[in-house]
Design a protein that fits this description.
The complex is a heterodimer. By secondary structure, chain A is an alpha/beta fold. Chain A has helices at residues 14-27, 41-54, 74-80, 108-119; strands spanning 3-5, 32-37, 61-66, 87-90, 96-100. Chain A has a 5-stranded mixed sheet with strand order 1-3-2-4-5, with helices on both faces. Chain A is globular, with a radius of gyration of 13 Å. The mean pLDDT of chain A is 92. By secondary structure, chain B is of the alpha+beta class. Chain B has helices spanning 7-22, 76-83, 95-104, 106-131, 137-172, 177-184, 199-225, 273-297, 302-345, 353-380, 392-402, 405-432, 442-447, 450-479, 606-614, 670-680; strands spanning 41-47, 51-54, 63-65, 69-74, 230-239, 246-248, 502-503, 510-513, 523-534, 540-554, 557-571, 583-597, 617-625, 633-642, 647-654, 662-668. In chain B, helix 5 (137-172) packs across helix 6 (177-184), helix 9 (302-345) runs antiparallel to helix 10 and helix 9 (302-345) packs antiparallel against helix 14 (450-479). In chain B, 29% of the residues are buried. The model of chain B is unreliable at 1-37, 85-92, 383-397, 399-405, 473-488 and 676-686 (pLDDT under 50). Classes of the chains: A alpha/beta, B alpha+beta. The interface between A and B is medium-sized, with 30 and 38 residues.
Amino acid sequence: MALITLPRVNDPGGTPEAQAKLQAAIDEPFTVVIIVYEEGPEVEHVLETCTGRALAKPAIRRVVWCPDPSVLSPEQKKNFWRANKAAVSVGLADTVADALTLKQAQVRILVEGAFLAAEGQTP
Amino acid sequence: MKRPCPRIEFFAALLIVAGCAQHPVATRTSTPKEKTTTPVFHYEERSKLFGTRQLPADGYRPDVDYRSELRFKVDSASLRGVIKPDRSVIPALTPEQEARARFLTPLLDAARQYVNKAAQASLEVERVQRGGRPVTPGERTRLNSLIKEQADLGLAFQQPLAQYLTEQAQAQFPNDEDKRLEYLKKADPIFPVGRLIDMEALGRFIRDEISAAAKTAARQKEIAETQGAVYLRIRATHAEPGRPEAPLHVQPYDKFEEGNVEQEPAVSFKLTDEDRTRLQQSLKVASDAAQFVRDVRNSESGLRKDAGAFLASLRSDLGKLRQAVDNLADLDAAIKKLANIVEQAGDSTALTEEQKKRIGDFKIYLEELKRDVNTVREKARPATQPAGRPNEIDTLLRAADDLSGDLVQAAELAMRHATEFPQRLKDLQSLLSGVQVDDAIRPLVETVAPNAVADWNRLVSKSLGAYPALVQTVKSLAAGTRPAQLVDALAGLSDDPDVYDMPFEDAPDGTMSLARNIPRGPEIVRVETQLVSKDTDGRRRVLRELPDREFAVDKFGLVSKWSGNLIFVKREGEGETGDPKINFDPAPGLSWTLHYVPLTGETSSAGDKAWKFLNPGAGLSLAALDFEDKGVQLGIGVHLTLFNDLLQLGYGYNLNAGSDPQYIFIGIGFTEGINQLSGMFGGNSP
């Protein structure tokens, strides 16, 4: 499945389930992840762009949508969230490989670059 | 009679205000032309009211007062930079452009290698994931290396391509990051949804880039060859929104006569003939609108019944729209075939180099046509209809989406090619008429035989020519009763006999008098500039078109305005026994409002910009009331307005009422509202 949606804070079981789902996606071997934050019409375009690129390598690429970043644990926020960025790619070494602004994350060639940077990490 | 809640009208007014505040009035778009980063012309505005003011070198349509004079100075050094006359001999491609070609071509190989390796890595990972068995450490290492290897190959392709596009974008939009990112979307077709790389799209991209470089090189070569005989041609026009452009005399660049108009004063109580006509129209509209509101309340009114027929008609036209897009698919396939035939003709030994070059030009045009046909298809493709009975609101919203800028732009492309393609075929036909036919060229000669050309023209006009009319039909439907006004096009600048050829080395400064040509605002002044060469017979060839400059000319400072409004009146008190209850009843009103309009530009303060956006005003108003069911009564009042008289709030006194004559009112500048809503649909101002 290319797109994994995390629950929001107010959803039943929201915070713990969201943190677990994100960690599972990051820990999955041989896969890289782009995490898309927040929600809104432009974020929908970002999701469309990122999912479109993830589907090019469905076995390797995943997109995690985190509409409510307040569900992240302090450690996850420190590791996988960047100020003023709408999307970050996390690679095989489980660290952020690239971070894109809301506008950048709607440009396919830049999203492709973010995925490739993540795939290029050595675990 | 029981009167419904006045909130319906109030919310309708708010909706219109909100819609208008967010949608600027439609204005003419300037033709996209080549960008230059060095300003060649320095404009300044001279007026008694605001003194001398430098205008931004490349800002978007700066404000200029209608009583002023516009002057430009020509920066000769920058102009020489645009022409590059120091290059005496230029090869077919400049070193820079050759480098571009050398750089782009290997990307195809890099992309192929990446795709192969990525496919292998994906398959192996998928196999492991499907197997569900534990992965051995050795296998894990091997797979991770494979993923890294394909990623490195991917980056070896993606990074140079991204860098190339970024550099191009930087050169074109040095100060606008959003536009630079938008430019990078040029590569979107290379990365389609669910596929690694569209090799065909990549090939097309590389070919287009190299071909653009070759075109530029050819033009620069021509410039170099004609150095010393380069002329500057400048023409200015002015037009009210939606009206035809009229020439504006540029001293000393043209032979047009200087105007001698009598300008309206910026502040005046006097009604001009123009005001009278406009107010008659807007009062009629306000009066109709008042009736409209009453009809909306009445479920038996004709309006309620006619709405169904209008929507049915709209749906039918959207059906035709889909059909037109299907025809474009046929055209696209036919163009591909034609391109192959033209390609084959290049191998002919019977053609001279010049003839081959002209056939090559035709091929480049076909590429452009193919691209534009696909653009039209993309932009014109209507959204998928939802299952079940179409919802009226959805239908209207979809129609509004289809009519937005994209579709109009697609229609412009379609119109251009519907005219240009037959002409190109005709040229090709004449080129081939005297040529000895060999095997390579035979298919092309047959393709441009008179009968075949007629078939081609039918196909093109059916696919492209039918389209603008359709757009126009839908546009008129959506715009209500006001079809777009046809604008007479001026002759092309290079052909205009009233424009002088100024030797560019000594190009003088130019002056345009707005005070003598523009009676009132708003108007758009547009300045076109070309560099041309002339052959021995005096025929001009355009070497370079510089970007158009546009100026928004209007009244600034203290400005008064008469306007017709639809007002909703609430009487203070009940009046006498038997008087109807007047609780936000619609009525036509007339108002005189004084505004302060600041000149704004890129360097304006946020306060000025906010003031201009809110555009507040204060003034006096008259209203046609009926407090006692005895016919028209005259009300007089004072009011405040916002958004250029779009929203009005006031207090008045009914001069003919027997009792309780005071009233408050909320008003909508109805014609302003319609103009701005019409802007949303691409219509013209009245």
